[in-house]
Amino acid sequence: MAQNIIHNCYSLAPRYNETPTVFKLIKFMDDIIRQPTANNQHKSFSWSRLFGDADKHPYDEIAWETRDARITKSDGAVVFEQKGVEVPSFWSQTATDIVVSKYFRGQQGTPEREWSVRQTIDRVARTIASWGLRGEYFATAADADT
Question: Domain range spanning residue 116?
Fold first, then answer.
């Protein structure tokens, strides 16, 4: 089965040579999984952990720091600012500014506003996993967690 999936990945990959997005990834997975089997049922992904240690949270492997995100116009006027956000220490200030301004959710100045990249990654990962479970892309809930 693994060889079939690898073969299918290589044969379908040229269709998805544009900028990768979550939706293209889901479509790519759908093309692979939804191919009917002999008994006309679709396949689901099941895999074991390839990276990291199951006993450690991936976030524990990253050094985090708190900094301010700020976007200014060429004249110095502040267009966006959020203070005290948590980001990986190896991120550039530009990466911090873009992610915080574009991808953090919640009204600024309220408790609902995300303040850490961890929250953003968790939100996106949970959403993709729930879509995958609902669409039966994963064989088990444990596969979705991996």
Answer: 50-146
Q: Are 71 and 91 in contact (CB under 8 A)?
A: no
pLDDT tens for each residue of 4-54:
443 444 444 444 444 445 556 666 666 655 665 555 566 777 777 777 788
Place of tokens 């006993």: 55
Residues shown for the chain: 146
Number of domains composing the chain: 2
Report which of residues 9 and 99 the model is more confident about.
Answer: 99
Q: What is the pLDDT of residues 121-140, one digit of tens each?
A: 999 999 988 888 888 888 88
Q: What residues are paired with 86 via a beta bridge?
A: 66, 116
Contact criterion met (CB below 8 Å) for 84 and 96: no
The Cα 30–Cα 93 span in angstroms is 36
Same domain, 25 and 87: no
